[in-house]
Amino acid sequence: MRRLTAAATAAILVAAGLTATTSPAAAHGDGYSALIQRASYGVPHITARDFASLGYGVGHVQAEDNICTIAETIVTVRAQRARWFGTTGEAAANVTSDLFQQKVIDDQVAERLLTGPRDGVHSPSNEVRDLLRGFAAGYNAHLRRTGAAHLTDPACAGKPWVQPITELDLWRAYWTNMVRAGSAALADGIVAAAPPGRPAPVRPGEITGQLPAPEAAALVAAADGAPAGVGSNAYALGRDATASGAGMVLANPHFPWDGPDRFYRMHLKIPGRYDTEGVALLGDPLIQIGHNGRVAWSHTVSTARRFAWHKLTLVPGDPTSYLHDGKPRKMTARTVTVQTPDGPVSRTLYDTHFGPVVVVPGRFDWTADTAYAISDPNAANNRAFDGWLAMGRARSVADLRAALDRRQFLPWVNVIAADSAGQALYADHSVVPRVTDDLAAACIPAAFRDLYAGSGQAVLDGSRSACELGRDRDAAVPGILGPAHLPTLVRGDYVTNSNDSHWLANPAQPLEGFPRIIGNERTERSLRTRLGVHQVRQRLASTDGLPGTRFTTANLWTVTLGNRAYGGELVRDDLVRSCTADPIATASGGTRVDLTAACTALRGWDLRVDLDSRGSHVFTEFARAGGLRFADRFDPAKPLTTPSRLAVDDPRVRTALADAVQLLDGIPLDARLGDIQTEPRGAERIPIHGGWPEAGVFNMTINVVEPGVGYPKVVHGTSFLMAVELGKSGPSGRQILTYSQSANPNSPWYADQTRLYSGKGWDTVKFTERQLKADPNLVTYRVGERRS
């Protein structure tokens, strides 16, 4: 396999017109020049003399491996999805996407991100601008040399939408990622917003009237502000938790396995200035999760809300004007037009001085008296690339924390980090609207106080300037909570997060007293969160069945992929006793179902979601159907062990098991998980372990059952997995990209890491020159050009 991988790499270089070399990166005049060292599994280690050339190398290799995915992202931010991908069926959402993105273009949102002093806080630094300029040039160079007609990925070979890109395209993609949990998540509610009783002039293909806003409604109904389809686990282990006394980090983001949110592994180096290994989202030019020589970090999706609502009191008789401190203010109306296969489509969108007007039918309606707007601080967040650049240069947890405090750039994620001295950090220093307890008490109308208490959604009185977000003295910019209002914890043992709030980052030192908009406190934790903490505690107590004490990167990998189903550990035996005693139950549709085979499968289940686990899918669907109902209450004094007893007398428990049996009709209830849960790679079906969080699984794998077949495709879940230790000789450990480096079925790196992950294997950290040169598959080449 190693020889084949190296040969395939060399073949790609020849096809691309590139020359293999073993010499250092050569000077290229005033042009771009980067040295690419492709290691095992196609992972590029890129060395350049400046940030423009580093960006060029990143853009080039990402285009070599994933040009179709990046090209589609550019289509999106150019507001051309409907034009190229249609409007029928599921593609109907393309029109909404295009209208939203066209308004971004018309309003010159990306251009405004780039105005101001280039200090990395008020506007992006020259280093970051150089990275994006170089990335666009490197991407375009690969496309120019290869030609769209000769691309090997059938997803876009010869397609007219594969075109050269610009820096501005990349900044628009950046902005869209920043507002993913805010404005972009509410895009259909923004496009749907229209004043009542005022027919607009109809143009060809024009959308008129208030539209349904299902995505916005889903976000409003969500328990927290996390973007849909993403999540993560992470550990930062300090000197008191590791065998060596050095810091260690587990990175375990759960992101989509297909599409624009795929991660890409790489190692980026400018000698003496920047040296970081890890992953970035495709299309981004620097490391977002990873490590340098002294610090490692990961991100988990935060529970904080990313926007605040403002309840507008409208001027009588004029539903597009609102009262502010007793004076009328006119909304700004902009008609946006996009092209579709059926002709132009137009829509008038409305803004206030807070931000866009949004409609969520049945919850936030636009009536003759009232409308609702949002303020989204991430819409002005131009600090993130500089923030990640500063993280990559941090020499300690203290340095990293200072970077977080100064820039306040993380759009919707926590950070979990450790350093070589054995300090461990948790911080939710993400961009959060400045809704303090005092502001909430004074400015949230009585009708919305329960909504705020329950979900963190703040609906402020938009008629008073005193109820605007204001500014904390220590905040990087107006309108967001400053560091003093944000939860932070530094310890010598461990911190962890699995997408619950900040409260129990370490149960020995709960984080309490923070504004509700960040997350809930003293409330029930998810089974995944509880298992995550149990795994750490059991390792430190040496009660997990593994040899030795404390953590090494080897046993951290084993613990992470132990594939325990904590919900099954708690209730499986009681569930089996219940269905054995009375094997006939009524499904939610009224059908009587025999539970005998399900009981037998559950009785023999090993309480894990390994490839050889039999019957785990029965428990998964039972849990997903709402069967995990507990007889005991949550006790905030015992947050890791309550609730824990199955409510066997609750009829909904047995109904859920009956529903699971019906759903799995045609699939053997005692099937091996590896036989029914797979990931396609061409004609190959690669068995995949892991499971749903509803069952209490730490190693998350999200997929949808296909009747009579099983789970034939992973939707999202464990994506990048890294266990890294920051030892005296430099970083070491294990890492893998579960879905492999390339989405191109004709790439040699399309399935190799996926097969490796199936067997719980790993690739090693290759940060030092010695580690990299020990790779038997290493192939080196240069990319570059003169700048115009």
Automatic annotation (TrEMBL):
Keywords: Hydrolase, Signal, Zymogen. GO terms for biological process: antibiotic biosynthetic process. The keyword Nucleotide-binding does not apply. Residues 1-27 form the signal peptide. Pfam families: Penicil_amidase (PF01804). InterPro entries: Ntn_hydrolases_N, Penicillin_amidase_A-knob, Penicillin_amidase_dom1, Penicillin_amidase_N_B-knob, S45. One of its GO terms (molecular function) is hydrolase activity, acting on carbon-nitrogen (but not peptide) bonds, in linear amides. It comes from the Bacteria. PANTHER family: ACYL-HOMOSERINE LACTONE ACYLASE PVDQ (PTHR34218:SF3), PEPTIDASE S45 PENICILLIN AMIDASE (PTHR34218). Belongs to the peptidase S45 family. This is Acyl-homoserine-lactone acylase.
